[in-house]
Write a structure and sequence with these properties.
By secondary structure, the chain is mainly α. The chain is 46% helix and 10% strand. It contains five helices and three strands, in the order αβαβαααβ. It has a three-stranded parallel beta sheet with strand order 1-2-3, sandwiched between helices. Helix 1 runs parallel beside helix 2.
Length: 153
C-alpha cells in the first residue's frame, strides 16, 4: 500500500504548489489489476484500484487549477521484476506463454511502450485529457478473465 498508493498521494500533496504555478500534470502508474482482480494478489489489486480512484478524484480536485491528472494501466510488462522475485527462467518462460495467450495482440508489453503512453499524456497532444486511465495492455482488458485461448479475426 505504501509504495503503490500512499506514495503518489503524498507526492501529489508535496508538489501541489509547484503544479499550480506551472500548470503541470501528473501521470500515475496503475495496472490492469486495478480494474480486474486476480487471485493471490489482493493487496496489489486493491492498491492499484486505489491509484485509479486517486487519479480520478485528484483530476476533479485539481482541474480548476489547470492541472491534469491521468494514469497508465499496463498489463504484464517484460521487466526484471520476475527474475528478481526468485522465479527461474523455465518458470518465467511458462508464465510469459500463459500471459501471451491471454493478450489479443499476442505479445507482452515493453517498458518503452508504457513510457510512450506517459509521454503522450504529458504532451501538448493531451491538453484536454484528465481523469483518464489509459490501458497499455494489448487488448487484454477486452477479453474474458481466465481466457486460455483467443481466436482473433
Amino acid at each position: 500500500m505504501d509504495i503503490n498508493l500512499r506514495t503518489p498521494f503524498v507526492l501529489t500533496q508535496f508538489f501541489l504548489e509547484f503544479l499550480r504555478d506551472s500548470k503541470g500534470c501528473i501521470v500515475n502508474v496503475s495496472s490492469d489489476k486495478g480494474e480486474r482482480p486476480e487471485p493471490g494478489l489482493i493487496g496489489y489489486c486493491m492498491s492499484k484500484a486505489g491509484v485509479e480512484m486517486l487519479t480520478k478524484s485528484t483530476a476533479m480536485e485539481l482541474a480548476p487549477f489547470g492541472i491534469r491528472v491521468n494514469a497508465v494501466a499496463p498489463a504484464f510488462v517484460d521487466t526484471n521484476l520476475y527474475r528478481a522475485s526468485g522465479m527461474t527462467e523455465p518458470e518465467l518462460d511458462a508464465l510469459k506463454i500463459r500471459v501471451t495467450n491471454n493478450i489479443p495482440m499476442n505479445r507482452i508489453g515493453t517498458t518503452s511502450e508504457v513510457a510512450k503512453a506517459i509521454i503522450f499524456l504529458t504532451s501538448e497532444h493531451a491538453t484536454k485529457v484528465t481523469g483518464h486511465i489509459m490501458k497499455v495492455d494489448g487488448g487484454k482488458s477486452l477479453t474474458s478473465r481466465g481466457q486460455q485461448d483467443w481466436y482473433g479475426w
